[in-house]
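Aim 2 progress update. The chain analyzed this quarter is reproduced below.
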Amino acid sequence: MKEYSIQPGEAVGVVAAESIGEPSTQMLLRVFHSAGISSAVVTTGLPRILEIIDARKKPKSPIMHINLVKSIEKNYEKVRDIRKKVEEVKVSDLIKGFTENLKSGSMTLDLDREKMSLYEINARSVISKIEAYGTDTELVGDTLRVKVKKKEDLRSTRVSFVNIRALSVVGVPGILKAIVEQSEDGSFYITTVGSNIKDVLEIEGVDKERVFSNNIAEIMDAYGVEAARNVIARDLYSTIIAEGFNTSFRHLSLIADAMCFYGTVKGVGRHGVAGLKESVFARAAFEETVKHFVNAAIFSEKDELRGVAENILIGKQVPVGTGFVKLAVKKEDLKKIKNSDKARE
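Predicted structure tokens:
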């Protein structure tokens, strides 16, 4: 028998739920007993599993692994140049301090020449970004004087100053840090804190088929639902394995299939998979019972009673296991059975 074969009627959904539920309970205990120990870069364990199955738009610790095209992936200098294009550098990263004058609508920025030299950015690049925001700028020594052109109230002026310091000078928006790492075969790749797949794919030298992010929503937008499904299954599996548990990949891939069944990524809660079930009873059994029954009555919904939850609710045989099989007896055989019963009597 092949490894992936199952018996007809097996309750694969229940087994999949148990396969992820039991290890998750143990993860919770492990986190509780390991107070103070956590990863500074990647969310792991139970918090990561919750992020995945809830289909959250923004993970708590977004990261990316960027592989380069074969022709340059072993050339450190070229990979480093690409890293500089990836890592975002804001105006606030290039200054020692600042002062604001809300009444006059002016602000002074003290440029940090060491940081500018480190990022290989000149003052002209900083000025051009700030002027594009709609300001008058003047460089005096290492001090940049900025004045808002449009006269606004104090609150709007303050918001403008904050936005100016948050302006991106170089790099990809959202990528807070980029590090060059080397794999066992000698090729280099880039690991980032922060995620922005669409903008990274536009950088020359990036292998568009080998860019990974733990942000499933971005994977969905950039590569489609099949790629998102693969990331869900793989991340669930790797997270559980990393915690020291062993769960068959088949159960986790089934969960990923259910989450991506509708052509986009849906969470497993009432706003996703559970709330989109065809059965009125199944939806009502999960959450918001009254709402589902009222809507079903208004729109004259009909429940075919094909699933598990709805049949349990009304006390009907569940269509799994032996209940999955329907038997029929031929009339000729039925007569033989009756005749044999009479003969015994």
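The chain has 14 helices and ten strands. The radius of gyration is 30 Å. These observations will guide the mutagenesis experiments scheduled for the next reporting period.
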